[in-house]
Amino acid sequence: MRDGIFLYGHYVSVQIKSMMQYKKSFMLAVMGQFLTSFNTFLGMFFMFQRFSAVGGFTYSQVVLCFGIFLMAFTLAECVARGFDTFSSIVRKGEFDRVMVRPRGLVLQVLGSRFELSRIGRMLQAVVMFIYGMRTSGICWDMPRVMTVVFMVAGGAVLFFGIFLAGAALCFFTLESLEIVNIFTYGAREFGTYPVGVYGKNILRFCTFVVPYGLVQYYPLLFLLGKREEVWRMFAPLLAAVFVVPCYGLWRVGVRRYQSAGS
Amino acid sequence: MKKYTSFFRLRFAMGLSYRAAAWAAVSTQFAWGVMEIAMFQAFYQAEPERFPMTLEAAVSYVWLQQAFLALFAAWMLEAEVFESIKDGNIAYEMCRPMKIYPMLFVRALAMRVSRAALRFGPVLLVASLLPGAYGLRAPQGIDRFCLFFGAMILGVLVTVAFGTLVYGITFFTISPEGLRLLVTSAMDFFNGAIIPLPFFPDEMRKVMEVLPFAAMQNVPLRVYSGDLAGAAAARAVILQLVWLAVLVAAGRIVMARAERKLTVQGG
Asked: Is the Cβ of B35 closer than 8 Å to some Cβ of chain A?
């Protein structure tokens, strides 16, 4: 285990070093990451110039929600980008090389890409979080702080699971499925607003199928003091269980993998 | 002229061959549309009196936007073209017995139209079958439909003319990535891809509506539902024509200058 962490750290440092060889394109990538989610923010900002609330949430509450959700997403994307671009690893036949090495597969794929450029988006998420934290009138006590930590961690694990499942599907299709993007990049866009806003059916989907609601909507209500049930605080931990079937799918995929590429 | 039409046909056929990608895109666009409509509906339910268009108009805006995404999307600026300008391969294109401006224009047009041709049918079909507030309604009146159709053609031409102008400007920079980033996000913001222009505050909207970006998808998508009608619609279409002329002229001038002083780097 310790050995694995050390190895991963080594992977990351190599990646960062190589990225720093091209400082200008790194800066551009950072800027690009920032601009895409900044546009999403602007859309929301201007909606609230016109409307005072949506689904019972005010502007600062939505900013807080978006900030937390975007932090979780960005953490996951930063680490799991190797899974997001996994189809190219499979198609080029690089996965064969991964399999002959005496190390865990997941660890190696994780190490293959570390996207420091997501720092541009992270910065935005943190700024939004701080703004939301100070303006949404929450009295910060221990359970509330813990809730935020759980939301970020649970959300990151959830998105990690989705990236992993998306990669696992590549074993069957050999190409990346665009439909997976709905659950990653689509969720990032629409996670701006608490998912309860989108109506009953979508909330149901986001509770029982892909549990975005458990890391976002339900604990958010507790955080904002709209609801008091304590289970809401721990809901993100339940959502993290989502990673288990995703890993199962990955295992199945690995087992039936028959090499590809040249 | 004939060589440009056959070049168009060639690129169009090329675009049509990516069928699997199109099916995948259809499902994504469909999910995107549903979520977007759910969002607008939430705002509508909260404060209907502040909603700047009818809900039905917003719904048709979203569906048409998703169906014809390939026609107007900012990210459809081709990375391949930027790359070839950067690495010098564009020189091969310039050797061909065609003018560079119309060639790039036709190429971009063919790509957008071919991609849209594969996608809009299924999205519109399913959207029109959806029940209740989520469904896309048929346009009222044949004249409105004709206006919509005309505004859409102009909108695509303006989008392509703008993109080709950007390609032209790229000739004067060594690395196009930064320019591309800025242009795509500005385009998304100002052309109504993120939220339709009527949702912006009034003073801001007045400025945005005369920019070239508003002459892209903004006009056809709002004409369809009648959100933009009468004198306002006529003004918008005239503005589309003006911008098309200006952008094409600017594009040709920039491209001609680029051609004259082009130094190919690399070999």
From this structure: yes
Read off the tokens for B152. Answer: 């859409």
Confidence at B51, pLDDT banded by 50, 70, 90 = very high
| Domain, as residue range, for B178 | 2-261
What secondary structure letter does DSSP report for B137? P
Quote the number of domains for chain B. 1
- Per-residue confidence (pLDDT) for residue A262, from 0 to 100: 54
Residue in B closest to A37 by C-alpha: B185
Tell me phi and psi for residue B239, to 5 degrees.
Answer: -60, -35
pLDDT tens digit string along B130-143?
Answer: 888 888 988 888 99
The model's pTM is: 0.90
**With contact defined as beta carbons under 8 Å apart, do B73 and B119 qualify?**
no
Best B34, B41, B43 member to test A by mutation, with max A CBs in 10 Å, is B43
DSSP for B74-136 reads GGGS-HHHHHHHHHSTHHHHHHSSS-HHHHHHHHHHHHHHHHHHHHHHHHHHHHHH--GGGSP
Specify the pLDDT at position B266: 55
**Where do the structural domains in chain A lie, given as residue ranges?**
2-13+27-256
Q: Which residues, 6 or more positions from A227, have their beta carbon under 8 angstroms from its beta carbon? A: A221
**Inside any domain, residue B266:** no
pLDDT tens profile A145-177 = 999 999 999 999 999 999 999 999 888 887 777
Residues 6 or more apart in contact with residue B234 via CB below 8 angstroms: none
Pairs of CB atoms within 8 A across A/B: 85
- Which chain A residues touch B if contact means CB-CB below 8 Å? 24-25, 28, 31-32, 35-36, 38-40, 42-43, 46-47, 49-55, 177-179, 181-182, 186, 189-190, 193, 197-199, 202
Tokens matching residue A88: 């190219």
Closest CA to A152 of A226, A224, A231, A67: A67
